[in-house]
Amino acid sequence: MSGQIDSQAMFSRPSKKSHISTIKYEIRMLRFSLEWLTRNGATYQPEEELYAVLECFLLHYRNLVNFLSGKGGSSGDLSMAAPNRWADQKHDKTQIDVIQKMAGPVYASHSADISTYLAHCTRQRYEQSKQWRPGTMYDELLPAIAKFEELFCGQKQNAYVTSVLGDAEYGTTSMTKYSILDPPERILFIRGPKKD
User: Fold this and answer.
1) DSSP characters over 50-67
2) Using CA atoms, how far apart are residues 51 and 58, in angstroms rounded to an integer?
3) I need a surface site. Which of 10, 46, 79, 164 has the fewest CB within 10 A?
C-alpha cells in the first residue's frame, strides 16, 4: 500500500429518503458495477480493483435477488414477501407475486453461491474455483428489476440499453446499443435516459 493512511477519514453512503430509495440504491450500484466490469473486462489491472468491483456487483446482486424473490436474508431485511414494511403506496398482491416468481429461479441459481464465495470465508473458495458471468446474471434478473421499477418507482423503461447477447465470455463481449424491447429480452443493463 502506498502513501499514508488517514485514520481519521470517515466515509458514508448517501442517506436514504425511504425504503424504496434503499432498493433504488441497490439497483444503481448493481448497474454501476456491471457497467464498470463490462467496460474494463476480466483482465483489468490492477486486479485488486477488478476484484473489488466484482465483489460490489455480487453483493448488490445478492441483496436484490433476495429482496425481489422474497427469499433468504434475515429478519430485518426488506423483502417482496412483506411489502407492508417498505411500500410507499398501495400494492397489488398479484403484481408482487409476479415479481417474486420472476426472481425465484434466479435466487435458486445464484444466492447460495454468492454467500459461499463472497459473504463467508469458506473452504470452497480455495478448493473449488468459481467463475461468474455478471452479464448473464444481470440478464436473468432484469425482468424482475424492470417490473419493480415500473410498479414502485414510476419508471417505465424509456431508456437506451447496452446489451451483451448470449453467453459470451466475460471480458470479450461485443457491445450493442438499441432501443428497449417490450418485454425486455436479452438486455444486459440500462445505462440512462434515452438520448434523442
Assistant:
1) HHHHHHHHHHHHHHHHHH
2) 10
3) 10
DSSP-based three-state secondary structure for 75: coil
Distance CA 126, CA 55 (A): 17
Q: Show contacts of 139-142: CB within 8 Å, 24+ apart.
A: 139/164, 139/186, 139/187, 139/188, 140/105, 140/106, 140/109, 140/110, 141/61, 141/64, 141/65, 141/68, 141/103, 141/106, 142/184, 142/187, 142/188, 142/189
Polymer length of the chain: 196
CB 119 within 8 A of CB 66: no
> Element (H or E) spanning 21, and its range?
helix 19-40
Residues 98-108: what's their mean pLDDT? 97
Evaluate whether 162 touches 191 at the Cβ level (below 8 Å).
yes
pTM here?
Answer: 0.78
Q: Identify the CA nearest to 102 among candidates 143, 152, 71.
A: 143
pLDDT tens readout for residues 57-102: 999 999 999 999 999 878 889 999 999 888 877 888 999 999 999 9
pLDDT in tens, 116-150: 888 778 888 888 888 999 999 999 999 999 999 99
Percent helix, strand, coil in the chain, to 5, is 50, 5, 45
More confident residue, 160 or 66: 66
Cβ pair 20, 67 in contact under 8 A: no
